[in-house]
Amino acid sequence: MSTIGWVGLGNMGRPMTANLVKAGHTVNGFDLVPEAVAAAAEHGVTAVGSIAEAVAGADIVFTMLPKGEHARTAYLEPNGVLANADTKTLLVDSSTIDFDSARALHSEAAKAGFRFVDGPVSGGVTGAEAGTLTFMLGGTDEDVAEAKSFIEAMAGNMFHAGGEAAGQAAKIVNNMMLSISLQGVVEGAVLAERFGLDPKVFYDIATVSSGDSWPLRTWYPVPGVTETAASNNAFKPGFAAALMHKDVELAVAGAETQGLDLPAAQLVHAQLQKLVDEGLEGLDTSALIRNIDPKAAGLPE
Ligand code: NAD
């Protein structure tokens, strides 16, 4: 079995490392927050006190950090990954970060003689715990194949999305499309109700009609309609509005760098911003319904 260096032991990193330990790997884990390291040590991660210690002797290093700025720091600073790892070590960033940072990390890693793969995930904390995350991987065929042999223990699906930053691109575009469909669903749910339709009857019609979509089927924002919806559970996440806000922001910023105007993405970003401004970013993303009807059923007071 192998030695794995891991940087970032938060909500996702903690359960992901637990699955690597279960698969028999030695995982040397570091986080800036000592409590996060201690919690990971409880499920068998070897606690270390710096990035340099985490990457020492590792066959592969994973990073699971909040945003592009954190990933740049962790890789590029003098006490970071590139300055301290052996160039034989394969590097995988599984954080969801902006497209430009992902490309910069690929190019800085290559300049320093490293192989680098971007590998963001979807599936949330429950997917991380169950070892069923979807990984979207960007890099060369050989590097992605090697990364997959380690990722297997954490994944339900692994896709080689393409070359450098293709994993981030796939993740960002997917979540942008999801948020736009969801905005349609929350508007539709309120209008259907105002027209006097029974929510369950409307749901049954729409799920077999042309208005069907994944958020309609999975996240219908009215309690008692579909089992998997956060609306049944006072809009507890699920997928927090804060995370979707970040992902749509990455899409809007990425579009700007490509000279693109994406009006629907901008609109849904503004709707998510309203939730953030009201301190409601901890609710599920389907709480977007609150902007249409502040008294929608199931919302917390
Ligand atoms: P988190 O904030 O819980 O954990 C991130 C950890 O990184 C924190 O413990 C923080 O202390 C640590 N960190 C930051 N900078 C560091 C540095 N320089 N060195 C060492 N540690 C550092 O975030 P999370 O929920 O685990 O998410 C991680 C990434 O996964 C994010 O990019 C997020 O968008 C993505 N993601 C999250 C989910 C989810 O449901 N939580 C789902 C899919 C993808």
TrEMBL record:
<dbReference type="GO" id="GO:0051287">
    <property type="term" value="F:NAD binding"/>
</dbReference>
<dbReference type="GO" id="GO:0050661">
    <property type="term" value="F:NADP binding"/>
</dbReference>
<dbReference type="InterPro" id="IPR036291">
    <property type="entry name" value="NAD(P)-bd_dom_sf"/>
</dbReference>
<dbReference type="GO" id="GO:0009083">
    <property type="term" value="P:branched-chain amino acid catabolic process"/>
</dbReference>
<dbReference type="InterPro" id="IPR015815">
    <property type="entry name" value="HIBADH-related"/>
</dbReference>
<feature type="domain" description="6-phosphogluconate dehydrogenase NADP-binding">
    <location>
        <begin position="3"/>
        <end position="162"/>
    </location>
</feature>
<keyword id="KW-0520">NAD</keyword>
<dbReference type="InterPro" id="IPR008927">
    <property type="entry name" value="6-PGluconate_DH-like_C_sf"/>
</dbReference>
<comment type="similarity">
    <text>Belongs to the HIBADH-related family.</text>
</comment>
<dbReference type="InterPro" id="IPR013328">
    <property type="entry name" value="6PGD_dom2"/>
</dbReference>
<keyword id="KW-0560">Oxidoreductase</keyword>
<keyword id="KW-0101">Branched-chain amino acid catabolism</keyword>
<comment type="pathway">
    <text>Amino-acid degradation.</text>
</comment>
<dbReference type="InterPro" id="IPR011548">
    <property type="entry name" value="HIBADH"/>
</dbReference>
<dbReference type="Pfam" id="PF03446">
    <property type="entry name" value="NAD_binding_2"/>
</dbReference>
<dbReference type="Pfam" id="PF14833">
    <property type="entry name" value="NAD_binding_11"/>
</dbReference>
<feature type="domain" description="3-hydroxyisobutyrate dehydrogenase-like NAD-binding">
    <location>
        <begin position="166"/>
        <end position="290"/>
    </location>
</feature>
<dbReference type="InterPro" id="IPR029154">
    <property type="entry name" value="HIBADH-like_NADP-bd"/>
</dbReference>
<protein>
    <submittedName>
        <fullName>3-hydroxyisobutyrate dehydrogenase</fullName>
        <ecNumber>1.1.1.31</ecNumber>
    </submittedName>
</protein>
<feature type="active site">
    <location>
        <position position="171"/>
    </location>
</feature>
<dbReference type="GO" id="GO:0008442">
    <property type="term" value="F:3-hydroxyisobutyrate dehydrogenase activity"/>
</dbReference>
<dbReference type="InterPro" id="IPR006115">
    <property type="entry name" value="6PGDH_NADP-bd"/>
</dbReference>
